[in-house]
GntR family transcriptional regulator (Streptomyces cinereoruber), 239 residues
Amino acid sequence: MARGDSKRQQLSEEVASYVRELIISGKVRPGEFLRMEPIAEAVGVSNTPVREGLLALSSEGFVELVPRRGFVVTPFTQQDVRDLFWVQAQLGGELAARAAKNITPEQLDELEAIVKKQDAAVKDGDEDAMVEYGHAFHRLINLAADSHRLALLLRSVVRHLPNRFYISIEGRVEATSEEHPLILEALRRRSAKMARSLMEQHILESADHLIETLEARGLWQEEREEAAPDLAGTAVTIS
């Protein structure tokens, strides 16, 4: 890829990440049209990478291109979140199972060091370090699996949620502190079955945690209000 094309792709990815966060945080709502100029100004790019970023999001289902009108935000539901994490759980579980067979003693020692550093970060209340070591833990397992194509597929799914939402996932401090050492022990035992099961559970439970976080931020509040019956104006007949 030429240097200019690489730079343009990077800019369009920055746009896509910015707009994903707007959608998932509820700052823009389903049915709302996205104007290119404010997005270009916010990200600091021209309209060309904005359009390319929005086209990428249309392929992911976050927006839809309406002829002669522009890009409109599509609904993003709790089930969408669960579906994203279900796919991640399947891919992550398979990578963990392969890592159990392929991981080297040196990589196991490195994983153990990461777990200890993450525990220290938890005790210190260092959220940035918690997230850093949480990501490092998963990256090393994916690397140890020695399945480059599968890891790329997982990365493409992970990109559907902005990084700051994964911060809230790794913020499951107590759960992560318990689950990562269990996954490490499964890898030490070379138990592919146990590693797969623990990794799948670890990822799927993160979905519920993220949904709770997004609900607390009011992402689906309007949908709940619209779905709630107007009991005050409804006559109830008892026979």
Observations:
- The longest strand covers residues 63-66.
- The two ends are 74 Å apart (CA to CA).
- The beta strands are 33-34, 63-66, 70-73.
